[in-house]
Amino acid sequence: MGRGSAGNVISALASFFIPGLGQLLQGRFITALFMFVMTFLLWLILLGWVIHLWSIIDAAVYDPPVPRRYRYDRYGRYV
Fold this sequence. Notes:
Elements: H1 6-17, H2 21-25, H3 29-43, H4 48-61
């Protein structure tokens, strides 16, 4: 999945409703847990909207790393 793909849009929508859910759908468990816990804690002091917004944007623009076997060298060939 790349930026703007359907999977990232779904993840962003999921993070809109529950912070961290989009990251969880993408398989990023540590980030999802961090987003969920920090949003909960910061909502207690009225700053949770910052992490909530960050969670939505992060899920939308996430671009998974390319596996090593599919990378290109400097000449544009598969390595």
